[in-house]
Amino acid sequence: MSQPVAFVTGCSSGIGRALADAFQRAGYRVWASARKEDDVRALAEAGFQ
């Protein structure tokens, strides 16, 4: 069975980050977006796509 995928926008903080974290803990492969390059880099280091 394939891994479920979630795409979440606004993941640098707030509800977007909370949703991304929750999906990741639930076993989803999370594709996350943010506006600032530094935030995108931090998301990648946290294991998000």
3D architecture notes:
The protein is an alpha+beta fold and 49 residues long. The protein has one domain (5-45). It has helices spanning 14-25, 37-45; strands spanning 5-8, 29-32. A two-stranded parallel sheet has the order 1-2. Helix 1 links the parallel strand 1 (5-8) and strand 2 (29-32). The chain starts with a strand and ends with a helix. Keywords: Oxidoreductase. It holds the Pfam family adh_short.
Q: Helix count?
A: 2
Spatial extent as radius of gyration: 10 Å
Helical residue percent band? 40-55%
Number of strands: 2
Strand arrangement within the widest β-sheet reads 1-2
What form results from the Cα inertia axes?
A: globular
Distance between the termini: 20 Å
The largest pleated sheet is described as: 2 strands, parallel
Beta content: 15-25%
What is the H/E string?
Answer: EHEH
Given helix and strand content, the structural type is alpha+beta
- Which residues form runs of ≥5 with pLDDT under 50? none
Question: Features of this protein?
Answer:
49 residues; alpha+beta; two-stranded parallel sheet; 16% strand
Summarize the structure.
The chain has 49 residues and is of the alpha+beta class. It is 43% helix and 16% strand. It is built from two helices and two strands.
Give the SSE map.
Layout: E1 5-8, H1 14-25, E2 29-32, H2 37-45
Parallel strand pairs: 1-2
